[in-house]
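input
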Amino acid sequence: MDYIDFTTYNRSSDTTNSGDADDTIPLPPQPALSLSLPTNIENLGKRFSNLNNITRILKGDVDVVSTEGDEASHENALAEKYAKMSLSILESKDEEPVVGEVNGEQQQHTNLNVRLARVLNESLSDSNIREIFTYLQEKGIIGENDSELIKPGLVGSMNRKKLRGKVENELIRNSSSVLKEYAPLVRQLKAVETKLNSLNELNKTTNEKIVKNYQFSSEFNSKVSQLNQEKQLVGLQKNLLLVFKESFTLNEYEEFLLSQGDLNDEFFTVLKKAETIKENCSILLAIDNPQLGVKIMTKVNNIIGKSRDRIVNYTNKTLNNLYSLNLKSRLITLHKCFEYLKRQLNYFDEIINTFSESRSKLLIEEFYNQVQGDLDHKQKQQSEATPVKQRSISNADSARPIFINAHDPVRFVGDLLAYVHSVAVNEWETIKNIFTFEEEHEEHVRQEFESIITEITDRILKSLSRPIKTRIESLVSSETKLATIYQIYNLVELYSFMFSKQLGSTGNFLDTIQELVSMSRDRIMIIITNRLATIRTSNIARLELNLDLQPPEWIIDFYSDILPIIDQITTTTVLNFTEDDNTKFLKLIINEPIEIFNQHLTANHLFHEQKQDLLIIKLNFLDLILGKIMPISLLSEKVLEVNDIIHELTTELKQYQLEELLKQCNLFNYYNIINMICPLDDEFDTIIYEPIKENQLYTIEEMNKVNELVQTYLPNALIEIQSNLMKLNSPIIVEEVINVSFTEFVEFYKRINQINTEFLDYSFTWTEYELNTLLGLDK
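output
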């Protein structure tokens, strides 16, 4: 507190007069300067921080112990007084400025004092203090014997103040030397300051202009943006109106084109646009006020309706005049009409129905003219002329009419079917040319119209189904000859195949032809069935069975009619029957006649007791059937069946002839006895037949009788048996019966001769070799 600046407590003279003398503080020798201290002032201040300690050290060398307490108390009182005065001055600093100094300099001086007070009060080390005072002594600021600096009281305080003044002067000199070094830089900075001020002014002016320009640009841009928005809104409204006009209205040219223009690509393009407008009107009907949509839709519907009527009329006229389709452009237009009307099913179906009916009427009229002759047609031509456009493509007016020939129904059916086939082919080609689209169209469109071609052709030809069926049915129903019906069947089947290849495998007309094929086939079955039923109940057929043992005439007549027909068939089954029907038909022509023949034999009393004649007549009948059916491949199964029956009958006849030989030689009983004991086989052993000795008939006397009969009968047996089998027509069967029966007889003769030798010690006169020679058998 001892180093408070005097200038801090400087007051006016009247202030000193009003107080006590003790409160008066002398003014400093010179006013304090407001200088900014250099950086080394801090080091200087530190040197004075422990000044009190130095004072104590110096006083320690002098014997002033007696007065130390009084001076310390006085010093403390003085410091306390200075402190109070400093506080009062700080409180009134803003009200009473220092005289003679401007406010800026006073503020800087005050700050310097505060800094010096803060620095000088800091504590310093002894080495720093010694360095400070050494420096002051070197500069002559402090003498060697300057002891007044450490004295307490006012005198010491004044000396210290003087020392401070010296120090400050030294500091000022040092600072001045330092400031001189910065003088060029200050001058340059002042020059830069002038330029910077000019730049600041220019910057300020430029900023003001920029702000003004920015405000103007902002206003201008806002106006431009507003105008652009208005322009876009107007353009949007204009585009909406244009799009609405394009999407929901037709111009005058388009309306004229739909109402009166030619039917071409442009016409259908505009029509498609009109239909699109009609579809889009649903959007207008959904708004709050649907009146606009209703008006547009009504107008567009009227235009579309008129255009559709024009298309329908054009299509009907073109289809009624097929010769106009020679122009390719007209055909292309017709295809476009078809393609449009196909989406309008009611109109398209109506056109197809009208076209089909008109073509059907023409075909029926020409058909009757062909069948009934041209007399009625000529009379009709006298009453009304037939337009050229209504003539058929087949040009029936110049064709030769077909007349019914009662003696040649096959030719009539052939001519009739040939005419119908030519008409069908012409109609199919005509319709195909009309409804076949070019390859530039889509695949599904062409496929769709291909099915329509088949449908229309079937509709048109359907009109011929009933008259054709009626004519052919009447001929087939009245015909009784199998050959004629079979020829009609072949014709109908041939044309059925031709129609199916040309028109496809389905359709009403083709079904009619198939019905005629089935009807012809059924008629053949009916004729055969009726004929066999007539033979079954015929007395004449029964009387044909007599003792000449030959087959009846009816079977020869029957097979002479039916077998040539079957022999001509090249299919896997007869008349293209199914497997079941084919089996039934074969049973009808093979098994049924055999059954009728057996029935007639059963009813004939001539053969009740004549087994050989019964077997021979059966073998002759079956041999005839076998000879008839054997060359026909379709009857191969029945050939095997008949052959099995013949084999069974031949076996019975062979057994019968063997039994007759045994009976004639009185060996039949012994044959039965030996077979009862053990059947004869290749492994023959006489011991097995020893029980025969118990039979009373088995004696030497009886064997002598047998031997005599054998010698009497066998020389004539061959001739007798051949005469009995003379009526058997098959020499193979005759030879087989004779050889087998004689062979078995000789074999039995050999076996019984061995038994006789074993048990009776008896042998026949002739050996087996002699019998073979006698009966004409090979050894």
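quick obs: The chain has five domains: 6-181, 252-322, 342-525, 538-653, 665-775.
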